[in-house]
Amino acid sequence: MSRMGVRATRQCVLLKVGEMILRGRNRGWFYQALQRNVRRQLRDLAPLELRRRGGVLAVFAPGHEQQLLERARDVLGVVLIHPALVVDKTPAAATRAAVDLLRGKEGATFAIRARRRDKHFPLTSQELAVVTGQAVVDELGLGVDLGNPDLELYLEVDRDEIFAFTDRIPGRGGLPVGTSGRALVLLSGGIDSPVAAYRMMKRGLRCEFVHFCGRPFTGPESIYKSYAQAAALDRFQAGSRLHIVTFGKAQRQLAAAGAGRLQVMAQRRLMVRVAAELARREQAEALVTGDSLGQVASQTLHNMRVVDEASDLPVLRPLLGWDKAEIMREAQEIGTYDISILPAEDCCTLFASPLADTRVHPSRLAELESRVELPQLIEELLAGAELFRPKRDEQPAAA
After folding, report:
1. 252 and 345 assigned to the same domain
2. Residue 134's CB: how many other CB atoms inside 10 A?
3. pTM of the model
């Protein structure tokens, strides 16, 4: 952002929202949530100043302008990001800013797009565009093309200042995290579940995470992976919490009870039961998984319904209709793919039969589960759960 010029009184980043603007009487509540999220996600860039201007949030972080711009791209609920100059509310200041911003840029033609939020400003939007445009022509020799210009400069006249910018950087869109409630994500360590979590964050859910590890029959690698995944996702919401449930002995109990070909489905139902109870304790209203329809035997429509019967909370599957290639592309885009492909022993394969059953009858699972003291087992698993607070670029440390 140093290229912005030397005549600016200040620099800021403008965050523009999308579907939030359609929220009617609840719009103010959504903006409050957005501002809380911005302060939470950018609090280390203090001193931080936020100004709400209609459908725009102006964010100031003196001395941290480049970091602010980079981090703003991960604020969910924002559709457009503009690194902007903030100048005095006068035509002369707007003119200087326009010339500074366009000087040295490649292109032969330009257009000025002016907008007045303050209708008391002495010039209309068109008049301001004409005045500043003429100065650009005189000083830089560029030609005017309002239809298909090489360069575009935007001037937004606000209550106390004028914002001037040329860049229109796409944001991630969606809704501010927290505006749709809370959910608990079953984080497997694989490629799919982090993408599912991100998709639910974009729909306004604040997500907590739970990972079931195969200790003492597996090593710690899957724990490190889940921690790293949660840390990578934390940049979209900040304040993430990861619960690690040691699951190996419970898996052995199911195997000892004669699970056989039912082992994987029995494990998944037990995970869902434990997750549902944990979600209630953490005041979450839904579970989230990375299931994709038909991807593996446990993710057939029939078997997903059987798994869902183990939870009295809704189980959300945002990737249900996605194929593996789509999921992998999204994982690469949000930065979790390289973590997910790291080697680690999957607890789901412990004690599992090599024969997959795509249509498990619920009564067979119920009969197997009757041989295990489920309430006591669930309580023991939750009592032994460990809580971590992952942050990006940090090593695992117990909360």
Report:
1. yes
2. 13
3. 0.92
